[in-house]
Amino acid sequence: MKTNNIFKLVVCCLLLFSACDEGIDPITEVDPGPDAGAPMVTINKPVDGFEIQVAEPVTSTPIEFRAEDDIELASVSVRLDGAEIASYNQFIDYRIFIEEFIYDNITTGEHVLEVIATDIVGNSTTAISNFSKEPPYTALFPGETFYMNFDGSYSELVTVTDADEVGNPGFAPEARVGSGAYAGATDSYLTFPTDGLLASEFSASFWLKVNATPDRAGVLVVGPPDENNPDAQNNRTSGFRFFRENAGGMQRFKLNVGNGTGDSWFDGGAAADVDPTADEWVHFAFTISGTECVVYKNGEVVSQNSFAGVDWTGCDVLSIMSGAPRFTGWGHNSDASYMDELRLFNMALTQEEIIEQIAQADEVFKLGFNGSYTEDYSDIDCTEVGNPDYTGMADAYEGNNAYQGAADSYLTFPTDGLLNEEFSAVFRYKVNGTPDRAGVLVVGPPDTNNPDAQNNRTSGFRFFRENAGGMQRFKLNVGNGAGDSWFDGGAAADLDPNNPQWVQMAFTISNTECVVYIDGQVVSQNSFTGVDWTDCDIISIMSGAPRFTGWNHLADESAMDDLRIFKKALSQAEIQSML
Fold this sequence. Notes:
Structural class: mainly beta
Radius of gyration: 31 Å
Low-confidence stretches: 1-24
Oligomer: single chain
């Protein structure tokens, strides 16, 4: 019986194959035509400029890419930092190849991902994505509980937690700080749990570039659910709502805060308006305490009034760049503007603290001298000349160390990325009157005519000190390309070397003036037509050498701490905010 069944099965299969072959034309090869060019390659993850910031020293990252050719792909190679980590030469679809995988062993530092696609005639295309694994984030400001820099991800860096994406938020083609910014889109926003963010005092600080379409939107919202109006929520008895609305063509920003039984409004009127046609980044901040709420625009108060204290009942989610889902009753939905550098705090910031954050956005160089001469932003070590030293914790201004000068010793650093039409330097300084003259900060050109006593002052700047009747007098010299200008404050710029104290030193250079400050007070100020940076390729720290030695302004044996350089001419208020 079993044999008979097998025989019947074989007969059925033969009949089936015979039937399938009837009435079908034979396969005919079609000439695909000539190869039109090299393959196309797109790297979707990691995006160029992506920064990984996690607590672990070694981590992983998703890699996603697409390779496409008009005729046929022959091979695809994936390389990380020059080493091949994956390769492919068999494709289901011979024209289009889409791949994604997780790669481990991403160490701290800069990385280069290459995807190389080659077609059957040998044409090759390479797509490149530069990304980095950053050290774990350390809060820059007191009370900081939340920080999103939007540099290629929606990760919050204090807790290293990703925000939830609703819709299709994007990244802007520009940034106020760093390599990326948030770009709003229709029906799109981010949410984040409020665990650990809500306290009796609260502040938010961020940059916006306003897009007036739509003409009203939510920006930041922490609010309770509105169970009576689930499709148009507007329960304002707790939390806050920071949003914008059309005001005669301008966009007006407003804050609403709930106290548990009702809500209070902080509307600055025209003072809180932004012109959406200006296409400019604007800094916003607001603070909530048990006595008042304050709204700031570019560091200036635009709304301020008394307040009895915020209630956080039911406020379990933060909405970023939309009123949804908790504040939609008046149409304050997703914001199509750009946002950058979002920070939250568990304290009510002062105006000075907000102004310092605004200044920090233009900081391009930071040297803390806490046991190393490594610059913070570039992670590049200064070049040591001679034997510069450290003060030790007891004699540092802050942190565990400061720079201690020594004879014939100083630091240099390349000026790439540091020189702009405007320039500012701020640092802490404790004077040592021996030697009685020295260079402090110098960016200048070489003096080829006087290699052993250089003094070419037609470009760059020289900030230095000299004996003045037993005092040490600080002076600034700046070159404009054809000549140089002096900014000498006389006795106002003197420090007593017999009573050395830590002071804040600062100077600014713009296209209209140069200003020198000591402890936030102007000691020299005059007009100036603009700096020239020709051949200014190094900065010398705590010496005039090698570019400003003709008048013996050599190594400074004083102490320096917290050297910061900015790509703009800081205001006096910004300099004073750093005191």
